[in-house]
Amino acid sequence: MSYVRLVNVTKRFGDVTAVNSLNFEIGKGECFSMLGPSGCGKTTTLRMVAGFEDLSDGEVWVGDRLLSSPKKNHYLPPEKRNFGMVFQAFAVWPHLSVYENVAFPLRIRKLPDSEIDQRTKEALKATNLLSAANESPDFLSGGGKQRVALARALAINPDVMLLDEPLSSLDPHLREEMRFEIKELQQKYGFSIIYVTHDQSEAMALSDRILVMKLGVVQQIDTPLNIYNHPANQFVFSFIGLSNFLKAIPQDGHVILPDQSEAVPMTLKPPDSLRDAALLSLASRPSEIDFTHMEDPAGLHGIVSRKAFLGEIIDYQIKVGDQVLRVQKGRRDPGPEPGAVCAIHFLRPFWYKEK
Amino acid sequence: MSSIKTKSSFGVAQVILFLSIAILVIVVAFPVLLILFNAFWVNDEFNFAGALEIIKEPQTFQALKNSLIIATGTTIGSTIVGTFFAWLVTRTDLPHKTFMKSMFLVPFMLPSFIGALAWKMLLSPNAGFINQFFIQHLGFTGPIFNIYSYIGISTVEVMYLFPFVFIQVCGALERMDPTLEESARISGAGLFTITRKITIPLVMPSILSGALLIMLYSMAHFGTVAVLGIENGIYNIPTLIYERIHQSGGSFDAIRTGTVLATVLVISAAIIIYAQRKILGSGHYQIIGGKSFRPMELKLRGLRMPLMIFCLAYIAFTIVLPTVVIFLVGSLKTYGLAFTFDNLSLDNYKFILFDYKVTRDAIFNSVTLGFTAAIITMFAGVMISYVIVKMKVRGKGILEFLGMLPFSVPGSVIALGVILAWSGQFGINLYNTVWIILVAYIARYMAFSLKANSAALEQVHDSLVEASRACGATMWQSLRDIVLPLVRPGMLAAFFLIFLPSLRELTVSIMLYAPTTRTIGVAIYTLNEDGETVISAALAGIALIIIILGQSVINHFTKKAGV
């Protein structure tokens, strides 16, 4: 089932290892996202797949075709790889009309004129650009330009589409719209997508699987749901969604707060494997903390230091000793007022060892 | 709302506007108008046919043709050379690219007529060192190359003018978004196809605009043609104007021919400037990228070393060789002696710096003229640019039009214009004094000052002044404390952009000098004409040293300022 295959892919720039021994496989028709903060190596990885960067080590395969392998001294240049690619800055050629932009890859392949025309028009139609075909792309909005780039990538009917932060130059509302357009096109044409983004909601909405990366090292590869619900480590937990970390010291199978200001409920137990750590982090999502009554034995006591109405939700800041937690509740949920003493209850606590 | 005082600020704006217009009218517009007037207005009536008659005269017509031939050759040559080198240093893995790039910019600061002098010494048909070498040692019966020809003149001009295209294309290629080329590559196009179908068309506006600049410059170029052409009877428009005015001592006929020729220059300059604006306006694509990945570098592979050697040879042949020749000849006891150790000394340099009145005067004149012109033009430029860029005042349109004039009026036209304006017909006679050169310098270099200062002013956002006004500062205080400090780098740039070129100025000064008001350029040229080749070369060497020192000072300062 696997179609694109990266084996031990490594990229070094001088002394810096930008991508460290990356392994993953992508199925045909799968949407695969690479997610991480800037400088994590996701774009470099995509550019290695595209052929714009050499590999320092490892191999890239598509189907049974070897694309890059420094060991075997094999390197297929980008123009021979038959990918579609969309860039962040559109990269639409201003000296060609919309039509000629899209027809360009077909002309390079020296297809017969009738086929060029037919496939160009089909790609323009799929991206709702038919009416702008003869215009200069300079007159299009950012969204329009990105559609031209998409149509150009679609025209050759690629098996794999490489998308390098294609939506981050667009307005937020347009971004959401285009997200679904890309998804629809994928379902229609059945190509695989490798999608690079630093926007987690974009990755969540589009992807079948997500790869989370940090400093060139894979942190987790999994479905969006599993990444959210079962983060592999503290970095993934903090990178996806909002997160709280409460520091705690293990003691007799339970934990105490470092400043011992509040008693931590006995029900909040770290897993056995972490009992010998010097310091732990209790990780939680602001939406997965409930307020409870003061006598609840599972409640941790704190003081409401701020309450902000954000429209659909209310955002609380709770001080527990000298640490601060964020809690988010629906706007209909009556919560404590600023200054009040309250008790909170963690619905799904995660435990991580602090270094 | 009656308490708002509009009157006083209105007054200040009007004063500045009036002053700005007055400067441009007196310095540029009036002399140019006089030229047009003299060209077409004869015996109290408009006489267009007469002007045509003058153009049809064999000698003037030939000069027009020559200007066009030389300019076309120079433009084509420079565009090819400039684009090719720009592509080499920005898009390939040529070794030592940074060094090459800085070397290719060196001809910018070297005066082309000094280069022409060097090439005359090297390649004049009979006496040129290279030709002699081939005849005496390699058995050639005649010169291998005659520099006194269209090809010779154009070749020398290309050597000094190609940086105009080079710098424009380099800039465009460096700023261009690399993904524009990458997306063509992923579309299946090879590097050659990408260069042809994507890269070149995208930088075409920059190539064309550089080419037009060269065309404009070459059409109106005096020095190279004066040094290399006159020998063989090749005159272009500026050299013929000079010849006529110079020979006749300002007779009516000579002035008439001069003004008609100058008019042709002004018109062609206007057409070129218009075409350039059109190209930059309509075709200037937004090709500047966001993410800055290094652009693809074409691997030259087997061609890497040959191309590097080619570049080094080009630099050695066009920059090092002429410079060395100037200094060597400048050290000779007598021209014609062999370059042996016995025949070389520093005596000539000592002589022209300390003993020879003509050259000492010339150096003093050039330095004081350049400094004064730079100071005056710098301040006038700030004021005029400020009105054009920042002020909203009625009548600004006139100033915008006048502000474009200095860009399109060639040096020889300015020289002729100031002769007409300041020779006593209008009550003031500056002819044969150093002041007439000063006025001409101000007119000639106003464009540089306007360009540098308006670029600096455009960086100063209006809100900065508004913020200062909101803090309670008056308009004058805001100008003094906010705007002026922020445009100081622009003013400094303007000063040096004027001071350095004026040290080597020839085109204007040659038309205006009197025996005691020679400038460095005039002294080099006239000494060479009088057969004082050795002294002239020594002075040229001194000029090169001053220019290179000055340029290093600028580079030092701009680096420090982080510009």
Q: How is this structure best described in words?
A:
The complex is a heterodimer of chains A (355) and B (563). Chain A has 355 residues and is α+β, with helices and mostly antiparallel strands. Chain A folds into 2 domains: 236 residues, P-loop containing nucleotide triphosphate hydrolases (Rossmann fold, 3-Layer(aba) Sandwich), CATH 3.40.50; 112 residues, OB fold (Dihydrolipoamide Acetyltransferase, E2P) (Beta Barrel), CATH 2.40.50.140. Chain A contains 8 helices and 20 strands. In chain A, strand 16 and strand 17 form a beta hairpin. In chain A, helix 2 crosses helix 3 and helix 3 crosses helix 4. The mean pLDDT of chain A is 90. Chain B is mainly α and 563 residues long. Chain B folds into 2 domains: 254 residues, MetI-like fold (Orthogonal Bundle), CATH 1.10.3720; 219 residues, MetI-like (MetI-like fold), CATH 1.10.3720.10. A two-stranded antiparallel sheet of chain B has the order 1-2. In chain B, helix 20 packs antiparallel against helix 21. Chain B is globular and about 80 Å long. The N terminus of chain B is likely disordered. Chains A and B meet through helix 2 and helix 4 of A and helix 9 and helix 10 of B.
Largest Cβ-defined interface: A-B, 31 and 27 residues
Oligomer: heterodimer
Largest beta-sheet characterization of chain B: 2 strands, antiparallel
What is the terminal-to-terminal distance of chain A? 40 Å
Please give the largest β-sheet of chain A: 6 strands, mixed
Number of strands of chain A: 20
Regarding CATH, which class of the largest domain in chain B?
Mainly Alpha
CATH superfamily assignment of the largest domain in chain B? MetI-like
Count of separate DSSP helical elements of chain B: 24
CATH architecture of the largest domain in chain A: 3-Layer(aba) Sandwich
Q: Share of helix among residues of chain B?
A: over 70%
In order across it, which strands form the biggest sheet of chain A?
A: 7-8-9-3-10-11
The strand count of chain B comes to 2
Which outline of chain B best applies?
globular
CATH class of the largest domain in chain A: Alpha Beta
- Low-confidence parts of chain A: none
Structural class of chain A: alpha+beta
